[in-house]
Amino acid sequence: MEKIVQFFKSIGIRPTAIRLMTYKRLAEMNVAISLGDLEKAFKVSERSTLFRTMKVFEEKGVVHQIEDGTGIIKYALCEESCKCEVDNDLHLHFHCTNCKETVCLTEYKIPHINLPDGYITEDINLVVKGICEKCRGNLC
């Protein structure tokens, strides 16, 4: 836990109990998680506190949002060197249509996309939908 406290201090995040618990939960997950899922995991927390926590994490580059087509925003931890820059840190996301989990495929980068003059890219989100390897094994 001390390592997380030091990390938070190094990027200007006050290490409150809920922030530490939220970060720990995200680090334990291998999938993206919604605010509702976090709320269920922490029965004593308030939704507004979790929302503010995720906004701070997002502003400081600790997490990134994923819109996987389900209509629910999900969050995943950023890689250590990530700055969430459009041209450098964007990667694929995979949403399993069977188990409904969404995962970051950080080793699969989204290539730079050239837009016509006058257009400015602010964000890119690429989600591949299908059956994950865990579910594929259960279907065979």
What does this structure look like?
The protein is α+β, with helices and mostly antiparallel strands and 140 residues long. It has helices spanning 2-10, 17-28, 35-41, 47-59, 133-139; strands at residues 33-34, 63-67, 73-77, 91-96, 102-109, 127-130. The strands form two sheets. Strands 1-3-2 form a three-stranded antiparallel beta sheet. The protein has a three-stranded mixed beta sheet with strand order 5-4-6, with no helix packed on it. α3 crosses α4. The termini are far apart. The mean pLDDT is 88. This is Transcriptional repressor. InterPro entries: WH-like_DNA-bd_sf, WH_DNA-bd_sf.
Low-confidence stretches: none
- What's the helix count? 5
Please provide the ordered H/E string of secondary-structure elements: HHEHHEEEEEH
Rounded to an integer, what's the Rg over CA atoms? 16 Å
- The percent range for helix content is 25-40%
Dominant shape: globular
Task: Give a count of the beta strands, DSSP E runs of length 2 or more.
Answer: 6
Terminal-residue CA separation: 41 Å
SSE class: alpha+beta
Give the strand content. 15-25%
Give, in spatial order, the strands making up the sheet with the most strands. Answer: 1-3-2
Report mean pLDDT, rounded to a whole number.
Answer: 88
For the sheet with most strands, the description reads: 3 strands, antiparallel
